[in-house]
Amino acid sequence: MSIIFHQQENAKQIEKELKRFAVAIHFNWNNPEECIALAKEFKIFNEAVSKEYMKSGDSILKNKVLFFGLVHAMFRVMTEGATEHHTHIHGGVLWKSFAKALYSLN
């Protein structure tokens, strides 16, 4: 199987996990306002915030750390596809909604 196929499969698996964590953090990716709010939070997310969230007793905050980690993984898969293999790797509905909100903030 080709590397491109594996990268697309990785993107599908990441999307599946993003959906699982979206449910855990009560994130409705079909709601543009929620997408914007989570995208704003992602933009200020860093190692210090991650540590703070993980120390909290709040499972939603802890799951956001994992959700944001998956967002980074998706960016990595898509970047590798574009730069190393000259192909577009596509995310699913959740990814497209979140990415649209994220890019609208720039």
Q: SSE order, as H and E?
A: HHHHH
Q: How many strands, what sense, and barrel or not for the largest sheet?
A: none
What proportion strand? Answer: under 5%
Q: What structural class do you assign from the helix and strand content?
A: mainly alpha
Silhouette: globular
Q: Mean pLDDT, rounded to whole units?
A: 90
| Number of H- or I-type helical stretches | 5
Share of helix among residues? Answer: over 70%
Rg, nearest Å: 14 Å
Oligomer: single chain
- When the domains are counted, the total is 1
* Low-pLDDT runs: none
Protein topology:
Layout: H1 3-24, H2 32-44, H3 47-55, H4 59-84, H5 93-104
Summarize the structure.
The protein is an all-alpha fold and 106 residues long.
Q: Care to describe what's here?
A:
- The protein has 106 residues and is mainly α.
- Helix 1 packs antiparallel against helix 4 and helix 3 runs antiparallel to helix 4.
- The chain is built from 5 helices and no strands.
- The longest helix is centred in the last third of the chain and has 26 residues.
- The chain has one domain.
- The protein is globular and about 40 Å long.
Task: Name the descriptors.
single chain; 106 residues; mainly alpha; globular
